[in-house]
Amino acid sequence: MQSVSSLLALRRAEIPRTSNGLPALDEAAPHQQCFQATLLTCLLSNDDHRHEWEHPTRPAMASVSCYLNRIVPHRDRVELVTNTACRVASRMLPLLHWDSQISGIPGLRLLEISRRRLRLCHVPTGARLDLVDSSNSASRRDMSEDLRYETQWHTKDDGEPLWRQDTLSSLEGAHEQRWATTPWTGLRSSVLVRMMALVWDFQPVWSPAPPGGRYERLTFMGPESPHSAGELLTSSAARIPDTAYQARGEHEGVLTQGDVGLVLTRASW
Which residue of 27, 151, 174, 178 has the fewest C-beta atoms within 10 A of its own C-beta? Predict the structure, then answer.
């Protein structure tokens, strides 16, 4: 059986563990889970299945997953390790457009810049997101210059960088239902932690449950079987606790956790 390290592309020292030395991938605090559940919906989008917070004229959040090397969970934050932290930040930080549309993640703010790390905070939930560059910049000033360069397009077409404001705008606050606790919060947060095991082979796209429904949906654009993803998420060394998977035909199955779950299905072409 593959180890957690190889499945999730994590270094052994990065894997959180219990006092008994077992992997502890799902220890995020409740407010952190709310943000991580929201973040998953943003990252599992693409040009054909656009998130409501996608930039109106260019692919931004839909491209972020292509830049990620690994996702490191902690109780009080989640780290996205990438070769280009400033570029990833530029595609996630919120902008206000002329028609009052918001792109990027409402409420996300820059807290601190170091030679290798951008520390971000999601103001409404208090959750933390660290974007970690795989190599150090020469200095903090160089990292700041990189961020300035990568975000210079934010003010084009009369865009307003909301992320430079200290407080949450009323337009951002109007999206509060998107990060409110739901029956799927814990499950989505857990899938985010394991996302790197899915992105390249399965190419998943998230969609919400229909009104009154119990199952959200991951549609796989890649060639691998949904059943392989179901086994990975429920039976591998990196399994999500208290989940089960049941196949429903050749190209679809249901992953359940308590009363809710995810339909895993292959896209029909």
Answer: 174
For residue 89, the surrounding DSSP H or E stretch is: helix 85-92
Residue 179, both tokens: 């990060």
- Report CA-CA distances (Å) from 16 to 22, 35, 71, 137, 247: 8, 19, 12, 27, 31
Query: Would you say the pTM of this structure is higher than 0.85?
Result: yes
Instruction: Per residue of the chain (269 residues), give pLDDT as tens.
Output: 479 999 999 999 999 998 888 899 999 999 999 999 999 999 999 988 999 999 998 889 999 999 999 999 999 999 999 999 999 999 999 999 988 999 999 999 999 999 999 999 999 999 999 999 998 777 899 999 999 999 999 998 778 999 999 999 999 999 999 999 999 999 999 999 999 999 988 999 999 999 999 999 999 998 899 999 999 999 999 999 999 999 999 999 999 999 999 999 999 75
| CA nearest neighbour of 121 among 92, 97, 85 | 92
Name the token pair of 220. 């796989």
Number of alpha carbons in the 13 Å side-chain half-sphere of residue 64: 30
- Nearest-angstrom CA–CA distance, 77 and 25: 12
Check residue 162 and give left, alpha or beta (phi > 0: left; psi -120 to 50: alpha). alpha
DSSP state, residue 218? E
Mapped onto helix, strand or coil, the DSSP state of residue 46 is coil
Nearest-angstrom CA–CA distance, 25 and 19: 13
